[in-house]
Structure formats: structure tokens, C-alpha cells
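Supplementary Methods S3. Input chains for the assembly prediction are listed below.
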Amino acid sequence: MDQVVSLLQGFGVVLSVYHLWLMLLGIMLGILVGVLPGLGGPNGVAILLPLTFTMPPTSAIIMLSCIYWGALFGGAITSILFNIPGEPSSVATTFDGYPLAQQGRAGEALTAAFSGSFVGALLGVLLITFMAPLVARFALKFGPPEFFAVYLLTFCSFIGMGREAPLKSIVAMMLGFGMAAMGMDTMSGQIRMTYGLPQLMQGIDFLIAVIGLFGIGEILLTMEEGLAFKGKAANISPKVVFQTWARLPRYWLTLIRSSIIGCWMGITPGGATAASFMGYGIAKKFSRNGDKFGTGQVEGVLAPEVAAHASGTSALLPMLALGIPGSATAAVLLGGLMIWGLEPGPLLFIEHKEFVWGLIASMYLGNVAGLIIVLSTVPLFAAILRVPFSIIAPMIIILCAIGAYTVHNSMFDVGLMLLFGVVGYFFKKLDYPLAPLVLSLVLGDKAEDAFRQTMLASKGDVTIFASNWLVGSITLLALVLLFWPLLVGIWNKLRTSRQVPAT
Amino acid sequence: MGISRRTAELAVAIGIFIIGIAIIGDSIHLGIGWSNNSPEPGYFPVRVGGILALASIGIAIQALLDKSPASLQEFVSWQRFRLVLAVFVPTVAYVVVMMLAGIYVSSALFIAAFMAVSRKFNWFVILTISVGSMLVVFWLFEIEFLVPLPKGPLETWLGY
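Predicted C-alpha cells for the full assembly:
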């Protein structure tokens, strides 16, 4: 039980006044970021990342991961009270959450959503605690071919498992790789693809892309959709909370199902959004009250929230153990690790034990604290949404601009952010997924290095990706995931054609 | 009559195709083969550019073949797009002013402009919120976190 000992040491790191204060701050900021349109997990973390450059890495990651939890909690508030998902992953929460609020049962819906999030996150953290060290130990055997195969697996699962058109996922991904390749080539030292602009020598920072795509793009889209916050009152009393909690064990099967879906979708980067829809869909299919879903069922709030939070949490498992993030926010956090001078990947568990276990311990504490804070501050955050949009909108844009500027203290980046905002607007409108773009932008250099080192070893022979059982099975799994929709289609066709003669 | 969703799909696909070709072009320039027994700098990007160009052709073909009513729908109505521009154009202006006057003055003006246009506030509220929020930002960044933000003539005059 090495893990338990390490975890206790982790708690030792986290339990200081400074760290607890950072957790509190992070969660409050996170909820705020989750509630406001145009600010979400990925760009909330991206905007605040420059402020942490001077902090010790452990303190910085504690605060930033707490922003992440807070954003996941906060997304549910707007979904239930305003029928506006604050985060893409809480779209499915509106299906039953808003009807509940309309019936005057907002307190119940919010309690169910937060408690569900908490359960999902807890299972995700347990999975990380016990699985991540094993995965990391296993991954120590990896060489460049294996690492490239794992990258391939990550990107293939995005294409095959994502909800968007596969070609659009591919485009998003390749744009990320292209931008990552800009500037100085890490192996030859040559300058690539700057097209005469000296500002591009350093390449494009992923933080600028995230702030533009998710922040400015989202604001533009929100404006177009004509935002009007006509919300239901939020009143959570301790009585409602305990009543709802007393009824939760009844839905244990839904909780378990959604947790498993969430954990799976988080580790393979399907993302929290896909997980929440899948959790909702499956609960609807298997629940006894399935036909009543959509009219205000507590179970219909639980199912997507549990899955979203389980997925959001377990997305950090591959990030910690392999250096491969399972979601856009995890990608931003990973980028942060590199900025703080930590090399993400299996060695992190050996060389920076204190950092890893501090982070894992903070996940436990962060989620407990998050649950308590969010339950007690819902009215406050609901009130923020009643601030007129003509004040909120410019302030969000200013925050984005400050965030973009502070990355490199460069005005050029602020302009670049605007450009990314336009791209984000069009991509969102045309259903291009943004998460793969961020992921490949963060991982681009590493993936390219792994690919070139592999090719160097094999003298350009791609069959090296099937040369031993380890790399071969990862590559095979990647291809299966890539063609997953196709395989399912063929399977269904075979089944129906076999059934036709039988009838 | 605005542009249809299909036209927008095509336009974006063409843009992506051009980016793909640009990446291929630059990669060929850098060298896409082998030298000294190792892959040249353009070895990886040329593949990225190639996939990008091919995928954009695929998207364009899909958009052309798509005869569903959704694809013929308007991409965005002019009325709604005006709302987008109503935020985007001032934001561009904001960034331009920021380059001249620093972040604090431009941000205060930006908030004030939005509030004034909405016509819901009197000048006192506008002044308090726009200047007050920038004082908070100044305190937070310059004094608490010691992160310098771009400053203009006003700050220089005040001694910062």
C-alpha cells in the first residue's frame, strides 16, 4: 500500500494555511469562471496561469486544479437556474435541472448536481490514487515509439469517440500541430513557418490560443445568441440538502454507471461533455423512470453531473502518469507544468513525488471544500448573473486581454488573441471541436520529437510501430478507436441483415 | 438574404486548405527528406500540412454533397451578426487604444462605452464602475502580484 503512505505525505504537504487559502481562492474563482459565459475551465486556468509563474509549482497546481473543480461545479448553477449551460459539459444538466427549477425545486436539483459531481470526482480521484502510479511505473518502459503510439491513441480516440465530424476533429488537431511546429525547431534549431514575422519566432503560445478560442470566441457566440438571464430563484436550505442526500442512495446504480462512463471517457480523451451526454443517455435507457426524463427528474440531473465530474477528474490520470492530458483544461494544466519546469510523464512520480501526491491530496480536499462552498454560496453566484451584461461582457474581454498580455508581456499576443477569437467563433458555429486543437498545440513538440526519434531509430520505416507486442497493441488499439464509428456501423449492419431472414 | 451554412463551410474549408498548402510549401523549403541520417525539419510538418489539405478537401466535398435543409439554412442572420460586430468592433478598437494608452485607461473607456451605449446607467454609476474596477485591477496586478501591465502617458504622468 505504497499509495496510501504517499497520499498521507501528500496531505502533509497540502495541509498548510497558505495552501488551504489558495484552495479556497481557487474554488471561488473557479465557480465564478464556470458561472460566467465566455470564461470556462480551460481559459479560466489559462488567464490565471501567468500569475502562478512565480509560485512554487505545488502551490500553483493546487490553486489551478481547484479552479478546475470550481468551474465544473459552477457550470451546473447556470444550467439549473438559468437554463444556460455555463460549461459545455453541463448542457445535459439543463434537460432535467431547469424543469426542476421551474417547479420550484431548484434547491433539490442543485444539491443533486453538486453531490453527484462530488461522487463522480471522488471515484475519479480514487482511480488516480491507485491506478496512476501503476500506469506510470508501466510507462517507464516506454521508448519514443511507444510514446508516439500513445499520442496516436490519444488523438485517434478523439477522432473516433468525439461527437463532432471526424474530418473536423482531424483538421482541428492538425492546425494545433502546425502551430506547435512554428518557430524554433527543437531538434535542428532552424526557424520554421514564421512567414517573415519575427514575433512568431517563439511559436504561438497555447495560452493565447486557449484564451482567444474559448474566451473571445465564446463571448461573440453568446452575443449572437442574444443572452438574457431570466433565472429562477435559488434557495438552498440545509433541510433541502439533507432531504436530497437521504434520497441519493436510491440512485446507486445510476451513480455507478455514470462514474464508470465518466472515468472511461476521461482517461481516453472523450471529454467531459461527451461523458455527460452518454451518462444521461444511458441512465434514460436503463432507469425505471427513463420515460419521465426531461420533465424534471433528480436522477436526470445526477447522471450527467456524475459522469462529467468523473471524466473531468480522471482526465488528470493520463496527464500525470503519461504526460498526456485527457481534456482541454488538463492540457492547459500540463502546459503549466512545463512552464514551471517540470517534465510531465512517468518520471514525475519518481522525481517529483511531493508535487504529484500534493496534487492528488488536494483533489480530495478540493472536492470536499468545493461541495461545501458551492452549496453555501449559490445565491451569491446567482446574483452575479443578474449584473447587466453590458458590464459583465467588457470585463470578461478585459480579463482575456490581461491574461493574453501577461503570458509574454507582448501586445502582439493580444492581437493574436483577437484573431483566435474570430477563428473560435467560426469553428464553434461550424462544429469544429476545439479541444483537440489545444491538445495537439500543447503536445505538438513532444509528439514530433517522439516521431522523429522513432523514425531515426528505424531509418524511416513505419512498421516499427508494430515491431513488438507493447507498441503493436497500443497502435492496434489506436486504429480500433479511430475506426470505431465505422466498426459499430458494420456490426449493426451485420446484425440487422442476420435478423431479417430470421423473421 | 445572408450566406448559407454550406457556403460558410466551404469558405472555412478553403481557408484551411490554403493553410495546409502554406505549411507544405514552408516544409519543402526547409527540407522534408533525410540529411545526415536524420529527418529534416520539414519532415513532420509536411505530413501535418498534407493531412490538413486532404481533410479540408474532404470537408468541402461533404459540404457540397450535403443536401439537407440544415446545410442550406442561413449561417447567421444579419440582425444577429450585427450583435456580434457590436462587440467585436469595439474590442478591436479597445486593443488599438491599449497599444497607445496602456491597459488601464483603455479598459476603463471600454467598460464606460459599453455601459453608456446600453443607456441603463447614469454617468456617476458609469464612472464609479469603470474607474473603480481598474483601480482594483491595478492594485491586484501591480501591487499584489507584481505583474506589470502595459501603461500609457497617464500612468507616466502619475509617476508609474
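The CA atoms of residues 323 and 345 of chain A lie 4 Å apart. Chain A touches chain B through 59 residues (CB under 8 Å).
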